[in-house]
Predict the structure.
Amino acid sequence: MCGIVGYVGQKQALEVVVAGLRRLEYRGYDSAGVAVISEGVLEVRKRAGKLANLEELLGADPLPQSTTGIGHTRWATHGGPTDHNAHPHVSEDTRIAVIHNGIIENFAELRDELRAAGVQLTSETDTEVAAHMLAREVPIVDGDLPEAMRRVCRRLEGAFTLVALDREQPDLVVAARRNSPLVVGVGEGENFLASDVAAFVEHTRHALELGQDQVVVLTPDDITVTDFAGEPVEVRPFTVDWDASAAEKGGYDLFMLKEIAEQPKAVADALRGRISKDHRIQLDETDLDESVLRSITKVVVIACGTAAHAGMVAKYAIEHWTRLPVEVELASEFRYRDPIVGPDSLVIAISQSGETMDTLMALRHAKEQGARTLAICNTVGSTIPRESDAVLYTYAGPEIAVASTKAFLTQIIAAYLVGLYLAQVRGLMFEDEIRAVLDELDEMPSKVDLVLDTTEHVRELARELADSTSVLFLGRHVGFPVALEGALKLKELAYMHAEGFPAGELKHGPIALIEEGVPVIVIVPSPRGRAVLHDKIVSNIQEVRARGALVIAIAEEGDEAIAPFADHIVRVPAVPTLMQPLVSTVPLQVFACEMATAKGHDVDQPRNLAKSVTVE
Ligand code: F6R
């Protein structure tokens, strides 16, 4: 949440910073602001609302030229989304400007202290205290901004990335991080920092991963990193393995449409290099210790939202293949309920961003209990993989639209690979059984491609149903998490009541929601899989139809038995049961995207949301 950009170099800082903010706007769009230093003066422009509002302001009231600047796009926590609360925040003496991502938990105490010292606070944000504290520390340490930053950080509690400018030191940007993302971009005669590499990848693909509780100091020609005590620390360099074009819309109207269309490639990339020529799973890159995999007695998945749905899908597969119990826990609940995890548990944290605070905190709790941890993550160098014992990257490429699409499919693939690897290492499946599943996985990119070729019908339906007040989703077995995912997509994009249910559970209460004309989208299990599931879902469809529901069946090609029971059928390719989520989710993504578009909503940046949720 909140996007942060910093630049120092030879270019016009404002251009670099605003372009970076454009790429980070998915992280929050309640307000945007920039600060530059020009002729010993800190110049700030900020505006509530999307970046476009700030750009309009910059058009009307341009900033002077400068080669040092910072910028921020906000997802509001403390204080409403107003001009006043927008970042950067400036100290009373106008010497220091600060931008911040995270929450300073002891801000009330620090604010009272500042007030007692006569400082006037002008916003409702927690960030502003950092600006005033820095301004008070800088003279004490003879203008040493990095040292002032360290002294301030030692007093802060909570999660923060802080970036500061000092009008007296025009070629300097200083930043600090604790529990919030921050990466450094290494250029020639210029350096960058940002919440996400997307902000600077058009300038450099050389980056540095920062650790916890570190302060980084950027000048055009130098980068130094210390801990909060001032001791130099080692940082890990990495190269961004995608280029700026991957974070562009590439001819699509929406990032979400582009990312839906990228799914065949994303699935192929998630599999690439992980299956050997002799049809064995090779996950050497992950550092997964085979003796640990042999010794564990259960698997616990921790994740949020869409990532949790991917975990729920994986549970069916991993339990089936390994006979190990798999618990899927919403990360936000995990550490608050005294979960039973220990050295015999493999805890898998699934996260696209690798920064989700709920998941990170759950991961840390699991580690404290001695659990072995594995991250399934899309963002290289992010915090969750860095803090896990092992990591399996999903390689879906940057996901910019707030609603997750390709991340979901690739999370399922990665979790399946882990499940099969467990089965392989523990000798639980015959080689030909593993090979058969790998062959099925291998076919998935082309199957997903087939779904994408046939989305017109689902688009039409979305437009026709755009005035509905509620949509229900039903599934059984792996179709149940798919139903949850379909409902989540519709809620977050079309802002309408949508619920996903296990189809068999409906009669235990939710069936009371059915009234004449309510659209019910049913993920129909393959009749070739476990026929009983197909038969049962037909009964469930009858139950809702008898009460007036409009039934839309997501059913495989060739399932003619479903025809008499559905008002509409959306066809997906016939695939084995455990592969069905990979094809049946896609029409639901398209449905939500189209319905939100029909309603005139901003699909890529739905209201109240942010892509990377770095608060608990
Ligand atoms: C929904 C969505 C969210 C995320 C959730 C976890 O479309 O994007 O539900 O899945 O916030 O995010 P990550 O995967 O970054 O941990």
Notes: The longest strand covers residues 96-104. The chain has three domains: 3-247, 255-442, 456-598. Residues 456-598 form a domain with the Rossmann fold fold (CATH 3.40.50.10490). The two ends are 11 Å apart (CA to CA).
